[in-house]
């Protein structure tokens, strides 16, 4: 199997003339992505959202991303959520509202820069979680097929690599990151899937992740065929 570094290098070569905006939370996934992309591309801007939801921890996440971006000589743009955005998060589905704020911010920066792409750090484990998340919600083919590695705007170069592979890289190359303790809370559906339900399924079927990925690949192929027929 191709190494994480080699995979990223090949990915970067496809977009060598583009400006890269990278969504960086401060967690291990996005910090590894920032570290990897900085090795092979110089035209980069880091984007970070401070949701102000976790008190001093939110500010420490911001400071950490700033510090690491400075080490890599990468400019960074911070979005501090407004009072109105905080109200929306608290009144609605917190994770969905936070996601909307994040991508609205990303796309706003993207729209101001010609020949640019937005890079985010979704990985293989996120893909599997998304399948079950959409299954619980009763989604159709489009939802169950999962995330695409690349679209017109978004690039997800880590999508074929597991969390363990990303952690291994971080430890090998001394990439520093911060843990978001809210990821351990079972309050949110995705966290329950990640921390309880999927591990339980794996006890009965150790290959459940591979099975899900095969299903998603078939669904993605079917989706492409359907869209081709419609067009």
Topology at a glance:
Layout: H1 4-14, E1 19-23, H2 28-40, E2 44-50, H3 56-71, E3 76-80, H4 83-91, H5 94-111, E4 116-119, H6 124-136, H7 141-144, E5 154-155, H8 163-172, H9 189-204, H10 208-230
Parallel strand pairs: 1-2, 1-4, 2-3, 4-5
Helix pairs in contact: 1-2, 2-8, 4-5, 6-9, 6-10
Commentary on this structure:
By secondary structure, this protein is an alpha/beta fold. The protein is built from 10 helices and 5 strands. Helix 4 (83-91) packs antiparallel against helix 5 (94-111), helix 6 packs across helix 9 and helix 6 crosses helix 10 (208-230). The longest helix has 23 residues, at 208-230. The radius of gyration is 18 Å and the shape is globular. It starts with a helix and ends with a helix. The model has no long low-confidence stretch (mean pLDDT 91).
Tag the structure with descriptive keywords.
10 helices; 58% helix; 231 residues; single chain; five-stranded parallel sheet; alpha/beta
**Portion in helices:** 55-70%
Average per-residue pLDDT, rounded, comes to 91
Q: Can you count the helices?
A: 10
Main sheet record: 5 strands, parallel
Outline:
By secondary structure, this protein is of the alpha/beta class. The protein is built from 10 helices and 5 strands. It is 58% helix and 10% strand.
């Amino acid at each position: 199997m191709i190494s994480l570094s080699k995979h990223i290098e090949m990915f970067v070569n496809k977009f060598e003339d583009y400006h890269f905006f990278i969504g960086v939370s401060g967690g291990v996934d996005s910090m590894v992505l920032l570290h990897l992309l900085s090795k092979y591309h110089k035209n980069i801007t880091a984007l970070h959202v401070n949701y102000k939801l976790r008190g001093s921890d939110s500010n420490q996440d911001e400071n950490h991303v700033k510090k690491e971006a400075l080490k890599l000589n990468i400019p960074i743009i911070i979005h501090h959520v407004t009072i109105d955005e905080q109200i929306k998060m608290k009144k609605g589905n917190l994770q969905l509202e936070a996601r909307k704020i994040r991508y609205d911010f990303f796309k706003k920066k993207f729209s101001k820069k010609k020949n640019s792409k937005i890079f985010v750090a979704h990985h293989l484990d996120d893909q599997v979680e998304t399948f079950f998340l959409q299954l619980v919600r009763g989604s159709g083919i489009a939802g169950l097929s999962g995330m695409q590695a690349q679209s017109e705007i978004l690039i997800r170069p880590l999508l074929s690599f597991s969390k363990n592979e990303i952690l291994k890289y971080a430890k090998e190359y001394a990439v520093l990151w911060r843990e978001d303790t809210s990821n351990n809370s079972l309050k949110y559906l995705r966290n329950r899937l990640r921390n309880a339900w999927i591990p339980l399924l794996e006890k009965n079927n150790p290959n459940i992740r591979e099975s899900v990925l095969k299903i998603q690949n078939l669904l993605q192929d079917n989706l492409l065929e359907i869209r081709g027929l419609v067009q």
